[in-house]
């Protein structure tokens, strides 16, 4: 006999598992289905984020940053280490252990919140008056019945046309996170978040990294001044980034990969590398969901069509996260998951797309919220800008990391903060203050008048807010 639930969530990535927990907190009987398998074939909830995305990439960024510090920066602190070596297998094993801690944590949270977890692929079997039948194909095939269904099936890496990922020479994020040795030469196609983060990891470990980018501008979505500052730092580190290229034929052989491309001047070139990471974006994933069986509407990109509140075209079916429109970010997926669970409970779930923070965890880190200077210009908004360099921040000097700046953009008339952009140490943490400020519609002066701990990097945030009114105290 089929088991009946109030809410069935398909997918246990950050969108799905958080939706399941919130729905259970609100008193619903909840099932969550996820098909991800760990190396032993067991369940590995957490989705792309936990298994091959946010978490493992940050684990490797941390390990490689330690390595770089030990090699190049310990000496200035008076620490001598002799030759520093990297055991790649150990680094990968540590990353796998971090991933497992997160998988186990989610299974624990399901138990704690009484969410029934099913390991396998969930698909729509049929719709009936007042609900849906969901088939689970897994270790133990089951049929579940639910009044409400939340689809959170995430996304998959986009391959170059005609060049499939073999995860040996041509790597997606998955292969890029589990290379067994440092490649001598690494090519990356796409200088977005994933390309830059993965390129940084392997460059720090000794690979000669070349990133090919089709667009003529570096990090077009980032504030131009911030992107320029970041590019300067990456150039100095030896991360080669070629913009405005057109990738042609990609060939793989025993020795590696060759990539034919035309550079920005139109000159034909050949890049040879041991490995190639393709990071040209991700595509929404509805594989095996059997969306057709119930008439679930997809758009031309394959994303599930939803309204502003994540409602699909089917009554009682919702969709959140990477499988729908909007930024492909774990925290956006989570916010949508919470909001949908609350809407099902008749509450007013809310996601503010204007205050979703963005972070690139390179060194220096890049983080921002709100509009960039170029967007404000394009929108014809009168604004004031204020910047403060980390070079003039005492904590940054003590850390030995003075690259970058904090930049505020505020409305010229009302002083309301319209955007905050950071490149520099711990930008990922510093941006939270800006998000809170923007959620509360704070002015630049509000931040400038708040007491910030000394010495802290957050003083650069306060000073950048002061700079909007041209009254920095330390610069
Ligand atoms: C290398 C990399 C680094 C990243 N770093 C960051 C970062 O630092 N910060 C950030 O915010 N975002 C980051 N992201 C993006 C982030 O991982 C995604 O935005 C996020 O995982 C989306 O969450 P989701 O719940 O929508 O989907 P996913 O995390 O993709 O989860 C979907 C889940 O659904 C399961 N599933 C799919 N179909 C079915 C089915 N029919 N039945 C059962 N289960 C199914 C999948 O197995 C998967 O477990 C990164 C991504 C990559 C690739």
UniProtKB/TrEMBL annotation:
It is an enzyme of class 1 (oxidoreductase). One of its GO terms (cellular component) is cytoplasm. Transmembrane segments: none annotated. FAD binds at residues 58, 122, 153-155, 322, 328-331. Its cofactor is FAD. Gene3D superfamilies: 3.30.390.30, FAD/NAD(P)-binding domain. Residues 5-337 form the FAD/NAD(P)-binding domain. It is found in: Cytoplasm. This is Dihydrolipoyl dehydrogenase.
């Amino acid at each position: 006999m089929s088991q009946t639930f109030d809410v069935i969530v398909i997918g246990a990535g950050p969108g799905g598992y958080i939706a399941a927990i919130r729905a259970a907190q609100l008193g619903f009987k909840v099932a969550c289905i996820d098909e991800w398998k760990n190396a032993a074939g067991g369940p590995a909830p957490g989705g792309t984020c936990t298994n091959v995305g946010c978490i493992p990439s940050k684990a490797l960024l941390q390990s490689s940053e330690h390595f770089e510090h030990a090699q190049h920066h310990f000496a200035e602190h008076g620490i001598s280490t002799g030759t520093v070596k990297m055991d790649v297998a150990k680094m990968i094993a540590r990353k796998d252990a971090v991933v497992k801690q997160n998988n186990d944590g989610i299974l624990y949270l399901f138990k704690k919140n009484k969410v029934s977890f099913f390991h396998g692929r969930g698909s729509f079997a049929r719709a009936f008056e007042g609900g849906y039948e969901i088939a689970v194909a897994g270790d133990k095939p089951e049929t579940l019945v639910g009044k409400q269904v939340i689809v959170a099936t995430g996304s998959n890496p986009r391959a170059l046309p005609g060049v499939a990922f073999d995860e040996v020479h041509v790597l997606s994020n998955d292969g890029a996170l589990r290379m067994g040795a440092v490649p001598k030469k690494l090519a990356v196609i796409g200088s977005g978040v994933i390309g830059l983060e993965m390129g940084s990891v392997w460059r720090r470990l000794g690979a000669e990294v070349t990133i090919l980018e089709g667009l003529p501008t570096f990090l077009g979505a980032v504030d131009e001044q911030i992107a320029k500052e970041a590019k300067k730092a990456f150039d100095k580190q030896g991360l080669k980034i070629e913009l405005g290229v057109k990738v042609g034929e990609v060939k793989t052989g025993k020795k590696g990969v060759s990539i034919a491309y035309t550079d920005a001047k139109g000159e034909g070139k050949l890049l040879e590398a041991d490995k190639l990471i393709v990071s040209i974006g991700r595509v929404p994933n509805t594989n095996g969901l059997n969306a057709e069986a119930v008439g679930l509407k997809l758009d031309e990109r394959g994303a599930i069509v939803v309204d502003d509140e994540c409602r699909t075209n089917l009554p009682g079916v919702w969709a959140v996260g990477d499988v729908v429109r909007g930024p492909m970010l774990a925290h956006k997926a989570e916010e949508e998951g919470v909001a949908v669970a609350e809407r099902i409970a008749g509450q007013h779930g809310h996601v503010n797309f204007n205050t979703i923070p963005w972070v690139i965890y390179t060194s220096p880190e890049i983080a921002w919220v709100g509009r960039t200077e170029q967007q404000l210009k394009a929108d014809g908004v009168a604004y004031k800008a204020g910047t403060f360099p980390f070079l003039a921040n005492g904590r940054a000097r003590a850390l030995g990391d003075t690259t970058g700046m904090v930049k505020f953009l505020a409305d010229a008339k009302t002083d309301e903060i319209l955007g905050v952009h950071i490149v520099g140490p711990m930008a990922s943490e510093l941006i939270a203050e800006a998000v809170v400020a923007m959620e509360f519609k704070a002015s630049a002066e509000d931040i400038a008048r708040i007491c910030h701990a000394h010495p802290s990097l957050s003083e650069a945030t306060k000073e950048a807010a002061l700079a909007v009114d041209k009254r920095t105290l330390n610069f």
